Amino acid sequence: MEHHLLEVDGMRVSRREDLRLMTGAGKYASDWNLPDQLHAFFLRADRAHAKIVSVNVERALKHPGVVRIYTGADAVGAGYTRPLTMLTFKGKDGMQVRQPERPVLAHGRVRCVGEPVAMVVAESALIAQDASELIEVEYEELPVVIDPEAALAPGAPQLHDNVPGNLPFEFEAGDAAATEAAFAKAAHVTRLKLAVTRVAPSPMEPRACLAAYDPRDERYTVHVHVQGVNMMRKQLAAYMNMPEDKIRVMARDVGGAFGQRSLGYPEYCMQMLAAKEIGRPVKWVSTRSEGFATDSHGRANYVKGELALDAAGNFLGLRVDWIADMGAYLTPTGPVSHLRNPSTCLTGVYRIPALYGRWRTVLTNTNPIAAYRGAGRPDVAYVIERLVTQAAVDTGVDAAELRRRNFIPPEAFPYKTPTGSTYENADLPGLLDKALKLGDWQGFAGRRSASGKAGKLRGIGISTVIENTGAGLFPKDQIEMHVAADGTVTAYTVCHSQGQGHETSFAMIIAETLGIAFDRVRVRQGDEDHPLIGNHAGGSRSTVGAGSACHVTAKKLIEEGKALAALELGVEPSQMAYANGAFRTAESKRSITLADLAKAKKFVVTAEGSFSSTFPNGCHIAEVEIDPATGVTQIASYITVDDCGRVINHAIVEGQMHGGVAQGAGQVFGEEVVYDRATGQLLTGSFADYYMPRAGLVGEISMEEHPTPSKVSPLGVKGMGESGCTASLPALTTAALDALRPLGVQHLDMPLTPSKVWSAIVAAKAGR
Q1: What are the pLDDT digits (tens) for 74-94?
Q2: Whole-angstrom distance between the N-terminal and C-terminal Cα of the chain?
Q3: Residue 529 is part of a domain; what is its CATH number?
Q4: Model pLDDT for residues 312-340, shown as the tens digit of each residue
Q5: Is 70 in contact with 121 (CB distance < 8 Å)?
Q6: Which of 578, 609, 640 delimits the end of a domain?
Q7: Which of 99, 278, 298, 355 is buried deepest, with most CB atoms within 10 A?
Q8: Domain count across the chain
């Protein structure tokens, strides 16, 4: 891919959002203010598991400036105890999910550090914080369980009475008997036990919310960061047991999300309750420390994987035993994304005749898990690709050749997998060939030798992955399009950007379809005055869903415009032709523009589309150098060849890839949320303790495209936002292990910190 600005009508332009965001003119959740607003502060549990004996707020209530203090009794009294679950399918043997109650303020018991126990509402944020220190909470300590495997063991501390064994849901996919038979006839079986570590997504924008209530129409207005207004409204309405049309969600700019901002958090519901009861808006802005402890975490999957091969190196079967740590409660997105997405892509890019997976979700005394960039897709790709690379090591077959030997061939697409999903078109051999050439796979031995002479250990890693995108909670995506009297076209969508550049890419789609100038198109996101059905931005679905709907709506605008133009010109609609913003009739040589039509009559069009999953895929090759004296790993080379279907905007695709690879590299080399196993205290509660990927972690990335246009989307797009994260986890980890393997190091789990790598080198040299 070339590095350039956007090409529109032969001119180079920057992203439309950039000037506003880069000059500080953006408006984020904490920037919203309302007259006469109050401020909230949440007193949070300082222990991981305890009975709440009493909560005494008398001294705090007397503090000057305090208006009201809420406790768990208020939350339970309001009935705000059960969040929405998106886990609607049945589990193993018809099991229904055991959904634990989660009062929006803890009542009776706290189950993780940071759980909100009380909310102080005061005239200022500082007053509310000061008053919170006067609240007296008496606890009775309970046993703590942090490790998910330990939580499943007999005699483990039980978190919820209605979730025996701390097992809210068990799920299976594939054919256990067929897989067992495949393993029985295997010439070789590769086995690995892998951890996909718990991470804190940490978007730039801290969590914030401003809630107001209007008694005239009995309607709430909530200013909050979102990934889509409909997703947020549905969750809040479910938590508060009220009609969705009683909640108005407002958002403009969102400073990063990564799945974490798709949730309707408990704090928002309490603010809404207070705003109604007190009669004044209530605002809350989280601190970064609160974010580490209480914003949803990601990943936290622990997997035993097995891959069976015949004597020729052909894959016969794949089996996984998967434990998904959900934390203390089930979030709406956490369990479903860590079950559905891995089972959908359990075969990876390979033709594996027999598959079987067992998934167990587990409750522990930790912060709840939700979707995080990729939402289970990077996790399953990591497991499969680690197994394939290890199988190559075990059998002595080149890692690229073993992949090629087992790829789903191009002629087999659309491909029905053994777990029931259907992959659309892909060219995996072509993808691999291009990546091997770009990465100079054959020349690696020379580069390893040169690094060795410089005292460094060099390794190479490869991953070839596929992921499902485009699915959503809502059945369709709608776009509303207005034509103004000056010819400007404004499109409304409920799919909300958190940095992906929707205002630019959606406008490019509309401008191209209508044949008008890019600067004549405007995109408005999440405008509650234009209610629409549609999904949030998540799962790399924005362009597949809302982008495709933009194209469909623009086509409908042309067709309806022909009818309107025919009336104006006194001809039949069949006589009308359209091009470049004007309708013409060949016989009379007369024409009328979009602007002219809008002057004559209000010109508004709404259209929709339902788009099933697309399957972007890619091959990444990474090389790393390790300093054996320090254990420090540096990325020496990173190349990507990806098939995201048709590319609408090269610059945005490159940005998505850079960001995704950087997030993957952060998890591989440093990121991990750590709790004390004895007490459940969070040990990585700030950036002083938690690794932050920095600009120097990933240098220049060599990128090429290998598109096979999607047949699901009318635009031919497949999605791109998570590919870099999905492929980089296995590519970078296998590269580091390849560097260490000559010393005898066969396995390490993420994160590959300098300390861990150095210790492994020292132990290997000592023969341990």
Answers
A1: 999 999 999 999 998 999 999
A2: 46
A3: 3.30.365.10
A4: 999 999 999 999 999 999 999 999 999 99
A5: yes
A6: 609
A7: 298
A8: 4
